[in-house]
């Protein structure tokens, strides 16, 4: 790692004495070609983002998606439609879910914090990442900064003038072409020129170079042409079996809402690369998003058999045990993360919850104190105060719980769960109007949660507003069809309406 950094520094130092343009390179000047290639790769490494893990889906991709998706998908065949997942995990009464019906995962990954909103208003209100309450405007938003920052940091302008490139000439030089493609794709974010260069280089290689086909597929994927990307990745796999190609092709199928096809692809990859951790982890992620928690846990355990330091697998298994009413076992996994050197707010927050539910009260408050100390932003602080409020409710100190939920809203004003719990405390105090207002706020911020709707139905039924109670109970049943209390309330209301 240190040697690479030294070479990059030498390249910048060497080239600072020359005002090289791309047109000056010629086959006779191999030294200058090597130096140019080295600087190009150094600039690329400064802003390089792994395309396999980088998968942010913006508003434009969600709302303006023209890919055909079945309106009534079969159970277990769609990630976009709620209620199509298979069983095997805790219900929403035990484990919180996103607005698309997916359970909250134990590890923050792209597209796990929010779902797929049905309206533009809902998309703007829904958190798309773990650190912001507003979504990015489009998928290219995650790539704008690297391309623009490169020009600002160079007083002499861009290193390569893309408008003056003769792509046909340089596509005939494989080594230079590959370095140039990486620079254009990652550093300049110019997908059109990158695609043109990759197409010319593939033609020059007589369509026998699998690497260029993968790059063309990456360009098509970035442009939203998923079927064209699928063809390129499949063609590359016929020529050369590579783990990355399997992962890229699986991303295409997931974006096309074909999780079963992606699962079969991962399993084909495991036949060619037995024990590959990334492929096993990909299967576990898909099962988790399909609500098949038991199968996901089995594959995460297979991941740990191959790599016992895999943070994502440990965190997800620990989260699954916690929501399965096994906090003592979950505590072991989170302590393992602590032993591995993971030291952040989220880990101590989870340790505090596990200690509380495992009745290890001596470690509960100290873990939450450490979590508050390590919180890096207001959203993390709000999560810790919210969990402290639950601890206060558990020990019967409702005044402390009220203050904790208030502090949660101070740090994050869009925390729907805190509004709901405050409304319950207000109902116990007899403050009906304050409770109703808080429940309305909670239901508008998180329409996928059943708790605010059910509490609104109970509150309205107590004050005699049966029509509003029935409407809220229907929304609660829609959000969580298996909620027994909601079904009983609806039955009582229907019997009362029948008697009128």
UniProtKB/TrEMBL annotation:
SMART domains: TPR (SM00028)
InterPro entries: BBS8, TPR-like_helical_dom_sf, TPR_rpt
Superkingdom per UniProt: Eukaryota
Keyword Signal carried by entry: yes
Biased composition (Polar residues): 110-121
GO cellular component: BBSome; centrosome; ciliary basal body; ciliary membrane; fibrillar center; photoreceptor connecting cilium
Gene name of the encoded protein: TTC8
First and last residues of every TPR repeat: 416-449
Source species: Ficedula albicollis
Gene Ontology annotations of biological process type: axon guidance; camera-type eye photoreceptor cell differentiation; establishment of anatomical structure orientation; establishment of epithelial cell apical/basal polarity; establishment of planar polarity; fat cell differentiation; inner ear receptor cell stereocilium organization; multi-ciliated epithelial cell differentiation
Keywords, ordered alphabetically: Signal, TPR repeat
Keyword Signal: yes
Signal peptide: 1-21
Protein name: Tetratricopeptide repeat domain 8
Region described as Disordered: 81-122
Alphabetized GO MF terms: RNA polymerase II-specific DNA-binding transcription factor binding
């Amino acid at each position: 790692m240190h040697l690479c950094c030294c070479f990059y520094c030498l390249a910048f130092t060497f080239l600072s004495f020359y005002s090289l343009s791309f047109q000056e390179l010629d086959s006779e000047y191999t030294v200058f070609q090597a130096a140019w290639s080295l600087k190009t790769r150094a600039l690329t490494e400064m802003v390089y983002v792994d395309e396999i893990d980088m998968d942010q889906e913006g508003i434009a991709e969600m709302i303006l998606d023209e890919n055909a998706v079945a309106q009534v998908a079969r159970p277990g065949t769609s990630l976009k439609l709620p209620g199509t997942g298979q069983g095997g995990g805790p219900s929403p009464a035990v484990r919180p879910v996103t607005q698309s019906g997916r359970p909250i995962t134990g590890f923050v990954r792209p597209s796990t914090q929010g779902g797929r909103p049905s309206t533009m208003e809902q998309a703007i209100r829904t958190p798309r990442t773990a650190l912001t309450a507003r979504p990015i405007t489009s998928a290219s938003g995650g790539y704008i900064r690297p391309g623009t920052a490169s020009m600002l940091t160079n007083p002499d302008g861009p290193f390569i003038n893309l408008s003056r490139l003769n792509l046909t000439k340089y596509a005939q030089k494989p080594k230079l072409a590959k370095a140039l493609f990486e620079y254009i794709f990652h550093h300049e974010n110019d997908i059109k020129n990158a695609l043109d260069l990759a197409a010319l280089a593939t033609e020059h290689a007589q369509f026998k170079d699998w690497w260029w086909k993968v790059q063309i597929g990456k360009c098509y994927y970035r442009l939203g042409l998923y079927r064209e990307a699928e063809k390129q990745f499949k063609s590359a796999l016929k020529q050369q079996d590579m783990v990355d190609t399997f992962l890229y092709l699986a991303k295409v199928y997931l974006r096309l809402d074909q999780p079963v096809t992606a699962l079969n692809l991962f399993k084909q990859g495991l036949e060619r690369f037995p024990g590959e951790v990334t492929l096993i982890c990909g299967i576990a992620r898909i099962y988790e998003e399909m609500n098949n928690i038991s199968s996901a846990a089995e594959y995460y355990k297979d991941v740990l058999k191959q790599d016992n330091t895999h943070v994502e697998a440990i965190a997800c298994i620990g989260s699954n045990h916690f929501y399965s009413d096994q906090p003592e076992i979950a505590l072991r996994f989170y302590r393992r993360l602590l032993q591995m050197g993971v030291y952040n707010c989220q880990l101590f927050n989870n340790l505090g919850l596990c200690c509380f539910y495992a009745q290890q009260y001596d470690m509960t408050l100290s873990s939450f104190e450490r979590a508050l100390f390590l919180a890096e932003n207001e959203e993390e602080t709000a999560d810790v105060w919210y969990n402290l409020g639950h601890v206060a409710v558990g020990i019967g100190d409702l005044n402390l719980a009220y203050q904790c939920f208030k502090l949660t809203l101070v740090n994050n004003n869009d925390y729907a769960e805190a509004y709901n719990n405050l409304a319950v405390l207000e109902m116990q105090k007899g403050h009906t109007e304050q409770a109703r207002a808080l429940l309305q706020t909670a239901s508008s911020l998180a329409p996928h949660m059943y708790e605010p709707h059910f509490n609104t139905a109970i509150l309205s039924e107590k004050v005699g507003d049966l029509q509003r109670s029935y409407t809220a109970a229907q929304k609660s049943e829609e959000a969580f069809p298996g909620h027994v209390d909601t079904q009983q309330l609806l039955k009582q209301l229907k019997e009362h309406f029948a008697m009128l």
